[in-house]
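Write out this protein's structure.
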Amino acid sequence: MPRFSLTQLRYQLRCQFHSYRHYRRSRRQLLALDDRLLEDVGITREQAQKEGHKAFWKHASFKRGHHENR
């Protein structure tokens, strides 16, 4: 049976926190893009709005099908 490691738990929590901050920051930046930049990225304003307003803990890719909602 594996031993509990407080150091490993702290490391995992820190990594998860950094990921959450990254998703939150990225989504805020996505909402700030103008239509020309969104077109360069290859997404519509509606897609950007939908992705930008998701909770920061939800991970999603624009390449997922409509049946793979999280």
